[in-house]
Amino acid sequence: MSGYEAKAYVALISAGEAVNGYEVAKRSGVPRSTVYETLGKLVGRGAAFEVRATEGTGYVPLPPATLLERMRRDFDRTLGILQNEIPRLTAPPQMRLVHSLTERRMLLERAEDVAAAARSELYVLGWPEDVEALKPTVRRAEEHGVEVATVVFGLDEDPVGWHTEHRYSAPSAVEDNLGRRMLIVVADRDQAVIGGLTTDRTWGLYTDDPAAVLLAHLYVGHDIAMHRVADRFADHGFDEFWAGDAGLRRLREPVGDPVRTADDAPRSVGPETDTAGDLDGALDGADGADAQDEDADRSRAG
């Protein structure tokens, strides 16, 4: 309905009896110059009816419950047509999508879209408070035959799908290491949402780029595989190996934010790298090499 049509319909409902155009205009604020045209549109769409009496023509509304049910039927009918026809019109993609998600609501809504699109396989990784928001959609996917795998960083008292509780490292340690909670949702190895959340900031992206989707899929699969290995070798010193191995400790170094150069380009810096010292050393080495070359030139000239 247009704004005038909606106002006129509300006026008819609140009147409780048949009223004429003048009364509708007075009750609704619709201009008298257009009120009969507006009422005619309501009658044309079946949302109101004319009632003729000795004192003139009045109008009564279609009951709200009936109107809402009719709108629901029309919407479902339209949606069914679109579901059948739009795929026939869709051309093969000429480019891959990557778009940013900068709010938790946007991230979760897009993750829900991806979960709802899954037809054969769905991977979900995240913290309980974020995964919980996706569970109704994830459960529907599982009910429709989608193979669902979830990795949850913490206790999930109502798990869904092939569930893995992330224990190595503890969720709090992982969040400290990454500086954020992670959320990954991958559907059919075809599209993914990847995001990070803190108490006051959200970043993320949606993509159907095969390279990025594959990396997200492998990231979740790696966590599942690691926990299965840990369970299999729990009685053979896995805990000591996990805690004591220097290589694993190096991999668990805090991630932090990217270091940026003067031109604002991101640059990776390892946890044990002294970039200023390395640069000084490189320059000293270059100066020494130049001096050696000059000595050699003088020797040959002599």
- Largest sheet data: 7 strands, mixed
- Strand composition percent: 15-25%
Distance between the termini: 99 Å
Order of helices and strands: HHHEEHEHEHEEHEEEHHHEEH
Instruction: Please compute the radius of gyration using only Cα atoms.
Output: 32 Å
Spans of at least 5 consecutive residues whose pLDDT stays below 50 are: 265-291, 298-302
- Tell me the helix content: 40-55%
Structural class by sheet pairing and helices: alpha+beta
Could you give a short description of this structure?
With 302 residues, this protein is an alpha+beta fold.
Topology:
Blueprint: H1 3-15, H2 21-28, H3 32-44, E1 48-53, E2 56-61, H4 64-89, E3 98-100, H5 104-117, E4 121-126, H6 128-143, E5 147-152, E6 162-165, H7 171-178, E7 181-187, E8 191-197, E9 202-207, H8 210-232, H9 238-244, H10 246-251, E10 259-260, E11 266-267, H11 275-301
Parallel strand pairs: 4-5, 5-6
Antiparallel strand pairs: 1-2, 3-9, 4-7, 7-8, 8-9, 10-11
Helix pairs in contact: 1-2, 1-3, 2-3, 5-6
Structure write-up:
By secondary structure, this protein is an alpha+beta fold. Helix content is 53%, strand content 18%. It has helices at 3-15, 21-28, 32-44, 64-89, 104-117, 128-143, 171-178, 210-232, 238-244, 246-251, 275-301; strands at 48-53, 56-61, 98-100, 121-126, 147-152, 162-165, 181-187, 191-197, 202-207, 259-260, 266-267. The strands form three sheets. Strands 3-9-8-7-4-5-6 form a seven-stranded mixed β-sheet, sandwiched between helices. Strand 8 (191-197) and strand 9 (202-207) form a beta hairpin. The N and C termini lie far apart (99 Å).
